[in-house]
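Structure tokens please, single chain.
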Amino acid sequence: MSRKQQLLKRHRRNKRIGLLIALVLLIAIGVLVVWWLPLVLALLGWIAHEAWFADHLFYSPGDDYEYSFAPYTQQPKVHLDGERLRLDEGVMLVDDATLVLALRIKSTWLGRFIDPAIELSGGDHPDRQTFERGVNGLRYLNLSGQAQVLSRGELRLLGRFCRVSGEPVLRAFEQPDYRHQRVMVIAPHADDAELAAYGLYSQAKEAWIVTLTAGEIEAEHYQQMGLGKVDASRLKGRLRAWDSIAVPRWAGVPEANCVQLGYFCLQLAAMRAAPTQPVGSREAEMDDIRLFRQFNPIALPGDVDGQPTWNNLLADLRALLLRARPEVIVLPHPTLDPHPDHICAQQAVLEALRGLEWQPTTLLGYANHLHDNDRWPMGDAGHGIALPPAFDSSVPVQPYSLPMPLELQRAKAMALGMMHDLQPRMPFKRRVRRFIQWLLARRVPSLYGENEFFRKAVRRQELFWLLKHGETPAEHP
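Here you go.
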């Protein structure tokens, strides 16, 4: 059982215990006071739960985030003068550096009911970055893109439903512009590449999108059209396979550089456990991956027998790596992203690279899911991305923040809108919850789409983590 599954199990157990206690209290009130009062209290309690207590937050908002950065990381001296953040005299910042500001944030009492945020103002790129309700600890703002206004001494930090305190610490990370290199994005499912890296791959000198699974399971939306479970699963897989090939064309990626490997959703871990054994689909009653590869522009080793094995997956990846020769590989982060297919996708790439004659210069990690906070990135669409919760400082990290101007955010939102998996309406209960949160907690739904990923992914930055940086490989022939 993964750490996230353990956290969810504990959360649900505690929730059941809480509901049982509440039920006993309501019955007692009905017996001792008046029969209709428990009904009113139950309704008010449910509304309060949906507004303020429905988030999956598996840590205390009072916990400090624990990050460790590489010892050579630059630390330009800054101090907070009221609301104004000032650099010490003589300090220079590189415009495109990734800037991270550590500071202590404490919510006001209203910040327990309305998401607390820090507003960045004073320049041409105002921003807002949001934190947990009730926050009271060390957090990390993403100041990337604010170098000029900070250098002029005009950057202001204004707390909304929170206050900042203590001496801030600024860190500056200088990296190459990866948009000028050959980039390969590894997507465990159709839409992962767009969610994590649309801005990067749409601007890259050359981009490849490699999707590992068809994402055919959980096809209830198509069953509502009158299809049986198997046919619905196969249709969903074919649609998502098409999405993985077609949607990157919106960003200018050639069709020849988009590949769908067609392995089955949530089966990569079983494949890895027995590398030579085929592992069929959970719901589509298939053990041949070639149906989901029909849109591929190139032949791959796994096409020969169509078997869903780990060894075939590695052979496919090696063939693609040698064909594309990427300088930068973008793949799920090994510890931040807990989805089992994402973990296995990262492991498969590393295993495929072992001993290969071509090695990338850079590995960048991304996280489309988190262990501890299902709402991250917090805040509204179009806002900035603060660093996510992290509580293991044993491994130094190096973030890389890519700016996303408004025009690019809109293009990314349209790409997500083309993805069939993000199109169905939310369940009625979630729509009611969203309305209650909009009404009582001031949470604004995304204008781009109903799915939660339109809020999470369409932001002022895309955030990556440098996992490997080495010597530049030989030039692509």
